[in-house]
Amino acid sequence: MPEFYLPDGNPITVHPHPGLRYQAADDGTLITFVDGRSELAVEPYNEVKAALR
After folding, report:
1. 19 HSE (CA, 13 A, CB side)
2. How many Cα atoms sit within 13 Å of 53 on the Cβ side?
3. What confidence tier does 53 reach under pLDDT thresholds 50, 70, 90?
4. How confident is the model at residue 3 (pLDDT cuts 50, 70, 90)?
5. How many of the other CB atoms lie within 10 Å of CB of 22?
6. Euclidean distance between the first and the last CA atom of the chain, given in angstroms as a whole number
7. CA 53, CA 45: separation in Å to the nearest integer?
8. Residue-wise pLDDT tens digits, 8-52
9. Torsions phi, psi of 45, nearest 5?
């Protein structure tokens, strides 16, 4: 499972899912989960995209 980091330094594990959405943000990548909640990962969009493919 890909692991990314939140702005506060805590890790977050993301389970790839067809309904998972992610988009570039000013400070990293905004990941929106199937249940509607969102988290900001500090990793750049291209890194998140490659890990979730």
Report:
1. 6
2. 6
3. confident
4. very high
5. 20
6. 11
7. 12
8. 999 999 999 899 999 999 999 999 999 999 999 999 999 999 999
9. -50, -45
Strand bridging mode 3-5 / 21-25: unpaired
Q: CA 7, CA 28: separation in Å to the nearest integer?
A: 9
- 38-41 vs 28-32, strand pairing mode: antiparallel
Q: Which DSSP string do the residues of 12-37 spell out, in sequence order?
A: EE----TT-EEEEETTEEEEE-TTS-
Single-letter amino acid, residue 6: L
Tell me which amino acid residue 51 is: A
Q: The pTM is what?
A: 0.91
Its sign, for the CA torsion 45, 26, 34, 14, is positive
